[in-house]
Design goal:
heterodimer; A: mainly alpha; about 0% strand; B: mainly alpha; MetI-like fold; globular
Chain lengths: ~290, ~280
């Protein structure tokens, strides 16, 4: 009897072990089930590279190029801000900060990671947006730049914690070797530690960027949501994620618009898939 | 000209500056929200329904809605996540299947939250006909936090020393008995930490509940799991962007309650982890 019970339990454990594969497949299946229908009315090429997104005009124009550009612009801005600051902070925490400050800083970074995106979006709306408007003398502060700045803060916890891990796992002997040869601490850091941890740092940056591309609420609240190809970083843009979040509420289930939003979901899913697999390869390389 | 000591000083100063660039804004965000939100917090705000088109009254239904969603998500995600973690740490061999599972977990944790929302809409709301309901929302959030629970529980299980298992097995206990009576009890603090972090994440997310459960305005409490519900993060989004002329105090107050809820859970997780590390016997 006990043997039978254990047999059942072990099978249950196996099934749950496979659950994550099951869910990834399920997500992909349901995205494609709804999303691929859009290609009855628009070719994949025109969908990806069409320059106008007017989903409810007649006939609907379903080109997501402006949205892709919106996402890329905001992400690029966030990357430019967050990568140097994030990596520098990781180096500071891993190498320079005294033990007590180190613990406090790590807790602070965890705190930042825990703040819900809608709260960051709200804070961005009430503080950053008016500031950007007045500094650059713009008609509106809801711009790609505002989005980039807030998103940089969402990418930093990921970048800092993974890069710090990578630096920490560099063998101590490397450092001792450099010291023994008379290198200063800083020379050791940028000539020995950073190169040794580089694949982990690349993974950290990629995962941080992955987080930024997928971020929805903050971006929707502060980038102004204009679905046109942006000419500068100081104009409103609309990202892929914000489009889904903002329009799905009004799209009729089974309509062309509804299918198109799912097709955007497929694009996002594939992007995050590629980013995560590549980042994982980089992390794995380090472990070998 | 080339002075290693001086360039080290400059470099370290710049690194310190970069750290401040992260820490100071985070501190400011928390301080601003507390300072401006605290005056809004009173018993009425926490226990009343929203009134005058959400410009006055309280946020009670949103708090309750979020609690229901979070509890629902954890009821779904904890058993599956824990068993999956047991599989990965105790049963899985280092083979191709294990590697695929690992990649699947990495991917699940990387899927954008709004894509979870789409998935929940397609599967639970439309295909399984649960409608926009607490059930659909909880299941969507549950799948979203699954990777967090699996990863942290797995780490907790793997940190139990191998010798514990060997002793138990050598005394004649079966594999499952060993897991149940030796490994699990020693891993509970770590599992608890992961669960609470998952709770905090589920409480703060908005995009996955947009189309699966969230009600714009529902001035009563949900009666069953097939009801729609208000939720704190969505409520904050609504009163900040969709409803004009909401008193700033109400917005900051809502942000404060949400922030407090999420940070409080994280704090508990940090405390449990800290105490556990201190008490660790091995």
């Amino acid at each position: 009897m006990r043997k039978f019970r254990e047999f059942i339990i072990e099978k249950l454990i196996l099934i749950c072990g496979l659950a994550s594969i099951f869910f990834v497949v399920l997500i992909f299946l349901f995205l494609t089930k709804e999303g691929l229908s859009v290609f009855k009315s628009v070719t994949p090429f025109n969908f990806l590279f069409g320059k106008s997104w007017y989903p409810i005009s007649e006939p609907a124009q379903l080109g997501i190029l402006p949205l892709i550009f919106g996402s890329l612009l905001v992400t690029l801005g966030a990357a430019i801000i967050s990568i140097p600051i994030g990596v520098a902070c990781a180096v500071y925490i891993a190498e320079i900060a005294p033990l007590k400050i180190k613990e406090a800083l790590k807790a602070g970074i965890e705190l930042l990671a825990a703040i819900p995106s809608v709260v960051l979006g709200f804070i961005g709306m009430v503080t950053l947006v008016p500031w950007i408007k007045s500094v650059f003398h713009l008609p509106t502060g809801l711009t790609a730049l505002s989005g980039s700045i807030i998103l940089a803060f969402m990418a930093m916890p990921t970048i800092v914690s993974i890069a710090e891990d990578a630096l920490y796992s560099v063998p101590k002997s490397y450092k001792e070797g450099a010291f023994a040869l008379g290198a200063t601490h800083w020379q050791t850091i940028y000539r020995v530690l950073l190169p040794a941890a580089s694949s982990g740092i690349v993974a950290a940056v990629m995962l941080g960027i992955g987080r930024v591309i997928g971020e929805t609420m903050a971006v929707m609240m502060i980038t102004g949501n204009a679905a046109v190809i942006p000419q500068s970083i100081l104009v409103p843009v609309r990202t892929l994620t914000a489009t889904i979040a903002a329009e799905m509420g009004e799209a009729v289930v089974g309509s062309e618009h509804y299918f198109a939003l799912f097709a955007i979901g497929i694009v996002l899913f594939i992007m995050s898939f590629i980013i995560n697999i590549t980042a994982d390869l980089f992390l794995h390389k380090r472990n070998r | 000209m080339h002075n290693p000591q001086r360039s080290q000083k400059i470099a370290f100063f710049l690194l310190f500056l970069a750290t401040l660039l992260i820490v100071i804004p985070v501190g400011l965000i928390v301080v601003i929200i507390i300072q401006k939100g605290l005056p809004a917090i009173n018993w009425q705000f926490l226990s009343d329904i929203p009134r005058q088109g959400m410009r006055a009254g309280g946020i009670f239904p949103a708090i309750i809605g979020t609690l229901y969603l979070v509890i629902g998500a954890i009821i779904f995600a904890l058993p599956i996540g824990l068993l999956a973690a047991i599989y990965l740490s105790e049963y899985a061999k280092d083979n191709i299947i294990n590697r695929i599972i690992r990649l699947a977990i990495v991917n699940l944790s990387g899927v954008p939250s709004v894509v979870y929302g789409l998935f929940g809409l397609a599967l639970f709301v439309v295909f399984l006909k649960f409608g926009a309901s607490i059930l659909s929302g909880s299941l969507t959030l549950g799948i979203m936090i699954l990777p967090i629970i699996i990863t942290t529980s797995r780490e907790a299980l793997e940190s139990v020393p191998q010798s514990f298992r060997e002793v138990s097995l050598s005394l004649g206990a079966s594999k499952w008995q060993t897991i149940r009576h030796i490994v699990l009890p020693n891993a509970i603090p770590g599992i608890l930490t992961g669960t609470i972090l998952g709770l905090g994440r589920a409480a703060g997310e908005t995009a996955p509940i947009l189309f699966t459960v969230a009600a714009f305005y529902l001035p009563r409490l949900p009666k069953s799991i097939f009801d729609q519900a208000m939720a704190l993060p969505y409520h904050l989004y609504v009163i900040s962007t969709q409803v004009p002329n909401v008193d700033e105090k109400v917005r900051y107050g809502t942000a404060l309650v949400l922030l407090f809820l999420v940070l409080f859970m994280n704090l508990i997780a940090i405390i449990i982890r800290y105490n556990f590390r201190k008490k660790k016997k091995w």
